[in-house]
Amino acid sequence: xxxxxxxxxxxxxxxxxxxxxxxxxxxxxxxxxxxxxxxxxxxxxxxxxxxxxxxxxxxxxxxxxxxxxxxxxxxxxxxxxxxxxxxxxxxxxxxxxxxxxxxxxxxxxxxxxxxxxxxxxxxxxxxxxxxxxxxx
Length: 136
Fold this sequence. Notes:
Elements: H1 5-10, E1 18-21, E2 25-29, E3 39-43, H2 55-76, E4 80-84, E5 100-105, H3 124-133
Antiparallel strand pairs: 1-2, 2-3, 3-5, 4-5
């Protein structure tokens, strides 16, 4: 896509701190990290979000995320990581090219990735499950 910043990074038109690249996926450091070492895993084929991704690209991206998360742990000594993917404006997506965030986590890093919770009313959980299953 012509105006997509991630496509420009993939094409080499914008520099990045690249960590990994293969024929389907690229991974580089986020320029505005939540923690140092925060990476983005991006399919090379442009897709706006997870629902738009080709299955092969989604599979490749998650495999690379798994590999990179292990490398973050070994290299940085992080005790955990968050794997985050925002899909759509309402979910906080800013760049509309599918991407996974891998955020290394350290004890007492002060980073809060948490949301509030809601509850289902009686029978509502089953109702929601049935609604979703109709479209699988």
